[in-house]
Amino acid sequence: MATIGFIGLGNMGGPMAVNLVKAGHSVKVFDLVADNVAKVVAEGASAAATAADVVTDVEFVISMLPAGKHVKSLFISQEGVAKHIAKGAMVIDSSTIDAASAKEVGEHLSSMDIKFVDAPVSGGVAGAQGGTLTFIVGGSEACFAAAKPILEGMGKNIFHAGDIGAGQVAKICNNMLLAILMTGTSEALQMGIKHGLDPKVLSDIMLQSSGRNWTLELYNPCPDVLPNVPSSKNYEGGFMVDLMKKDLGLAMEAANQSQSMTPMGALAQNLYQILSAQGQGNKDFSSIFQLFEQNK
Ligand code: NAD
């Protein structure tokens, strides 16, 4: 079993760290929010007082932070944090960030004899809680092989996408598609409701028809169609609108770099920007459903 330092215990990182404890690893944790630390410590992790403490004397450091600037700040800018990581140890960054930042962090750590993989995830909070996440890993074959047994404590499907940064590219393709599906599912359900259909009945019909998709089946944006999803809990928890807005920004940057045509992604980005500007930034991303409700 491994010694692990885990940084970033939010909606995703908290339950991921708990699953590593359950898998028998020795897990030390750190977050800027004391309550988030307390929840994971109650499940058997130990608390570190600082970022430098959490990375000291461990074989693996896992970060699950909001955006590239937080990851770069932690491993590159913050005076002294990386120098507390043992030579030969591995940093696994599971945050969703841009591929260029992942490469920059990887190069910086490599210059200090520290291994690095980017390993963003798919599967949402339910996947993090259930230990069923999909990990999309970028890094060398050897680093992938070393990271895999650790990732298996938190996920079910572990993919090797390519070199450092490739995990982030694959993840951003997936999330652009997710935003498009969530938006399309929301507008279709709202149109049905405005014609007097019961959203549960309409969802059942579309689930057995060609409109079937992950958002409709497992993350339905209409309240009370499914239990225990954010839409049935006032859009609390889950994956925040502002994080999806960030991911769509990353997708548009990636599209520009590769001269790719992404008109649907651009439209989804536009709609999520409107939702965020309306004050919904901290709500779950399925609350895009409410944007179409406003059009009475
Ligand atoms: P979150 O905002 O709930 O959690 C982020 C945590 O990081 C917070 O607890 C915050 O206090 C902590 N943090 C920020 N800066 C820190 C620092 N310098 N040191 C220590 N802790 C710090 O976000 P989340 O939903 O858990 O998402 C984390 C990452 O996972 C994001 O990149 C997101 O895009 C990605 N992601 C989220 C989901 C989801 O469904 N929520 C799904 C897939 C991927």
Automatic annotation (TrEMBL):
Question: Does Ubl conjugation appear among the keywords?
Answer: no
Q: Which PROSITE patterns match?
A: 3_HYDROXYISOBUT_DH
- One GO biological process from the UniProt record? branched-chain amino acid catabolic process
Give the pathway annotation: Amino-acid degradation; L-valine degradation
The residues covered by the 3-hydroxyisobutyrate dehydrogenase-like NAD-binding domain are 165-291
Q: What's this protein's name?
A: 3-hydroxyisobutyrate dehydrogenase
Query: Looking at the Swiss-Prot or TrEMBL record, what is one Pfam family this protein matches?
Result: NAD_binding_2
Q: Where is the active site?
A: 171
Write down the EC number: 1.1.1.31
Q: Keywords in alphabetical order, please.
A: Branched-chain amino acid catabolism, NAD, Oxidoreductase
Q: Name one GO molecular function term.
A: 3-hydroxyisobutyrate dehydrogenase activity
Protein family membership: Belongs to the HIBADH-related family.
Name the NCBIfam families for this protein: HIBADH
Q: Where is the 6-phosphogluconate dehydrogenase NADP-binding domain?
A: 3-162
User: Domain of life here?
Assistant: Bacteria
